[in-house]
């Protein structure tokens, strides 16, 4: 780790809960961290995930299965891209059940998804430098 590369410190702090290989791939897109790509990507993930979590809560309260599926689909991709593998898998499972309209066990799965997302965001937030 070089003194001029704050992204290395961020990588170390985030692995776990995020997958180290996924973070490293992101970091390799900005060697030396000169453009601050990793923190920018993580801030974007943080803000979009918070918005999606609110949408999921609202869709669940309204019984909107299609809205829940869309949130699970979107969050699945973004969480995979930053290495939030467990969250991505929970989203994939929820998306599949919602697509097939299999609601047995769905509330518990969505509770787990929400919990995992909140836990990840709570861990991520203090580690992200201000924009």
UniProtKB/TrEMBL annotation:
Top-rank taxon, per record: Bacteria
Biological process terms in GO annotation: phosphorelay signal transduction system
Domain HPt: 34-127
Modified residues (Phosphohistidine): 73
InterPro entries: HPT_dom_sf (IPR036641), Sig_transdc_His_kin_Hpt_dom (IPR008207)
Keywords noted in UniProt: Phosphoprotein, Two-component regulatory system
GO molecular function: protein kinase activity
Name of the molecule in the record: Hpt domain-containing protein
Taxonomic classification: Bacteria, Pseudomonadati, Pseudomonadota, Betaproteobacteria, Burkholderiales
């Amino acid at each position: 780790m070089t003194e001029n590369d704050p992204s290395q410190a961020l990588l170390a702090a985030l692995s776990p809960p995020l997958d180290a290989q996924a973070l490293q791939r992101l970091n390799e897109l900005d060697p030396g961290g000169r453009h601050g790509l990793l923190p920018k990507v993580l801030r974007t993930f943080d803000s979009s995930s918070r918005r999606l979590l609110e949408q999921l809560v609202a869709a669940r309260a309204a019984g909107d299965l299609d809205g829940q599926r869309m949130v699970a689909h979107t969050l699945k991709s973004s969480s995979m891209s930053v290495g939030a593998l467990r969250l991505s898998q929970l989203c994939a499972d929820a998306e599949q059940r919602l697509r097939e309209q299999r609601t047995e066990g769905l509330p518990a799965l969505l509770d787990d998804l929400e919990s995992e997302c909140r836990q990840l965001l709570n861990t991520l937030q203090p580690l992200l430098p201000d924009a």
